[in-house]
């Protein structure tokens, strides 16, 4: 445990990638396979179910620290992090028990969940008495599910690659899917001879960078493949033969490496029509009567273990396919994109698919024309454009230069800061989480919460303002004088009876501090409702003002062409080039 806690301390103490990489290399060069396996698992963002309720943790920690509950609560509010509060308040360790990291996980953490309350208390107190302050802090983070440290899985893979000499793409692929933190799994991960492919195993996703430079810096449009950036769930679908048997299996993996096959059962029959040894990359969407539905509809399908027929009818899933990663069992990731696209189009030509649709390409000769097409994204229900270099291979993770996401500007409103709350972790001493309001008549109505977008200096300045202009305090939250105005950006709106304003926003964040505006110049609720009405007209296929984004017809199965698939989502206003016309 001490060695893993030291690794955490080193990673948390620096923002330099080279120093983090060196710390990871030192750890994996010395750690036992089972300890290394659990380190990979936790550092990659995996979390076990929380074994002990927070209320019990607070009660037992206060008891061991010999503090009244009210004083423990005051300390917690000041620190802002439960794991750190417990680690700081507990008395020095009474027992010295150096155990491997894996022992603390398998013999204590995983057994806590099924233990009775009395046994949980004994196990926890023993653990707290046996660990030093840093070890306690890391242990508490693991136990509460709050363990986070600033390393990406790609950096972890790079470190293991440096230690073992195995190429990064191979390690990345071996870690995909249901990789288990065992000594056997870790030995297989670093085995030079390779690991037999599990038929369910997806490939590491290739990710795009946000385009920040001027579009003209990318060179000629002929070097790039342009597609719509869909607002759905990024996923890979797999159809492979069961080894040693005549049967086959279907798998759907999300980008977060969750197996979501059972959540979208209506896709399975069409995936089964794909040739054996096929892996497709695309975006799961809700498409009803040929109309692309907003992300809020897709949310009705997320997280469900069982999906009944009525929900499938009300919120029918489809998938827009834009890449072919494996064809007839052959890995195509090192083939250029233009070749993968060619094979993907040939694959779709002979299949009677309706729910799996070939993502249309956008053919424009100039960046100006491309920009004009991008400007229609919100009306079409998409987030902007994807630009992919035609010569690019399908790489693991986010690699700058080949794939760019050219998103449209967010929707914005100017709102007034009305409530503030202390943050967590390094922001525990700052008021960094804010609630913003807009005008409804002569009353400010809370509309959105945001905590990102300000610089550290701006956040300290706002924190000073909050402390000097606080009106009332409600636990960790305080109301403040309505004086500061901020421009708030968000992706979309939807009706929500749970919110006082009646509207919920998606991905709110602070774009800038409007020092040039007074509170009376902030936006009004009616302007936001008008935004929502505009979105609803777009999403309502029967609305008189609804744009013809999607043809009001169902896709004809065997006779449909690639061009018809494009029309299904974009209607007759979508400009098909000669390359997209169906053959005579």
Automatic annotation (TrEMBL):
The keyword RNA-binding does not apply. Residues 534-566 are annotated as: Disordered. It is an enzyme of class 6 (ligase). Gene3D superfamilies: DNA ligase, ATP-dependent, N-terminal domain (1.10.3260.10), DNA ligase/mRNA capping enzyme (3.30.470.30), Nucleic acid-binding proteins (2.40.50.140). GO terms for biological process: cell division; DNA recombination; DNA repair; DNA replication. Residues 310-440 form the ATP-dependent DNA ligase family profile domain. It catalyses: ATP + (deoxyribonucleotide)n-3'-hydroxyl + 5'-phospho-(deoxyribonucleotide)m = (deoxyribonucleotide)n+m + AMP + diphosphate. It comes from the Bacteria. Coiled coil: none annotated. It holds the Pfam family DNA_ligase_A_M. Its EC number is 6.5.1.1. GO terms for molecular function: ATP binding; DNA binding; DNA ligase (ATP) activity; metal ion binding. PROSITE patterns: DNA_LIGASE_A1, DNA_LIGASE_A3. The keyword Cell division applies. Keywords: ATP-binding, Cell cycle, Cell division, DNA damage, DNA recombination, DNA repair, DNA replication, Ligase, Magnesium, Metal-binding, Nucleotide-binding. This is DNA ligase (ATP). The lineage of its organism: Bacteria, Pseudomonadati, Planctomycetota, Planctomycetia, Planctomycetales.
């Amino acid at each position: 445990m001490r060695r893993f806690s030291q690794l955490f301390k080193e990673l948390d103490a620096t923002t330099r990638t080279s120093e983090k990489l060196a710390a990871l290399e030192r750890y994996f060069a010395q750690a036992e396979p089972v300890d290394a396996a659990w380190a990979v698992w936790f550092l990659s963002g995996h979390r076990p179910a929380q074994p002990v309720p927070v209320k019990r943790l607070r009660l037992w920690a206060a008891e061991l620290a010999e503090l009244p509950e009210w004083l423990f609560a005051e300390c917690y509010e000041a620190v802002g992090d439960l794991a750190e509060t417990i680690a700081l308040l507990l008395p020095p360790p009474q027992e010295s028990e150096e155990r491997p990291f894996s022992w603390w996980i398998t013999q204590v953490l995983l057994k806590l969940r099924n233990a009775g309350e009395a046994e949980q208390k004994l196990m926890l107190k023993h653990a707290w008495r046996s660990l030093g302050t840093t070890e306690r802090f890391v242990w508490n983070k693991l136990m509460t599910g709050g363990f986070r440290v600033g390393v990406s899985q790609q950096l972890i893979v790079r470190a293991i690659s440096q230690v073992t000499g195995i190429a990064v793409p191979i390690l990345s692929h071996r870690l995909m899917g249901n990789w288990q933190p065992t000594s056997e799994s870790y030995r297989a991960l670093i085995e030079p001879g390779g690991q037999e492919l599990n038929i369910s195993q997806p490939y590491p996703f290739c990710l795009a960078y946000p385009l920040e430079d001027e579009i003209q810096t990318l060179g000629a449009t002929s070097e790039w493949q342009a597609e719509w950036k869909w607002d759905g769930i990024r996923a890979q679908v797999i159809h492979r033969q069961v080894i040693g048997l005549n049967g086959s299996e279907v798998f759907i993996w999300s980008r977060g490496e969750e197996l979501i096959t059972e959540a979208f059962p209506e896709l399975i029959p069409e995936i089964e029509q794909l040739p054996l040894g096929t892996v497709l990359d695309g975006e799961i969407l809700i498409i009803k009567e040929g109309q692309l539905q907003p992300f809020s509809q897709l949310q009705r399908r997320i997280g469900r273990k069982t999906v009944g027929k009525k929900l499938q009818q009300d919120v029918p899933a489809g998938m827009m396919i834009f890449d072919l990663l494996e064809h007839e069992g052959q890995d195509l990731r090192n083939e250029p994109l233009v070749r993968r696209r060619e094979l993907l189009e040939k694959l779709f030509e002979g299949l009677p698919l309706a729910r799996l649709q070939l993502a249309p390409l956008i053919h424009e000769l100039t960046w100006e024309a491309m920009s004009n097409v991008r400007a229609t994204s919100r009306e079409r229900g998409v987030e902007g454009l994807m630009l992919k270099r035609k010569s690019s291979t399908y790489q693991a993770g986010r690699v700058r230069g080949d794939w760019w996401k050219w998103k449209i500007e967010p929707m914005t409103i100017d709102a007034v800061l009305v409530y503030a709350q202390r943050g967590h972790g390094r922001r525990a001493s700052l008021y960094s989480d804010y609630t913003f309001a807009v005008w409804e008549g002569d009353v400010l109505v809370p509309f959105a919460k945001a905590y990102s977008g300000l610089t550290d200096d701006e956040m300290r300045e706002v924190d000073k303002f909050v402390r000097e202009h606080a009106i009332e305090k409600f636990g960790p939250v305080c109301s403040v004088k309505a004086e500061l105005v901020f421009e708030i950006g968000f992706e979309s709106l939807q009706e929500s009876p749970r919110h006082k304003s009646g509207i919920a926003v998606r991905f709110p964040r602070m774009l800038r501090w409007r020092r040039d505006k007074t509170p009376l110049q902030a936006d009004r609720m009616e302007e936001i409702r008008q935004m929502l009405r505009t979105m609803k007209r777009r999403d309502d296929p029967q609305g008189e003002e609804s744009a013809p984004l999607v043809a009001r017809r169902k896709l004809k199965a065997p006779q449909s062409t690639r061009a018809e698939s494009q029309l299904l989502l974009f209607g007759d206003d979508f400009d098909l080039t000669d390359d997209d016309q169906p053959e005579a």
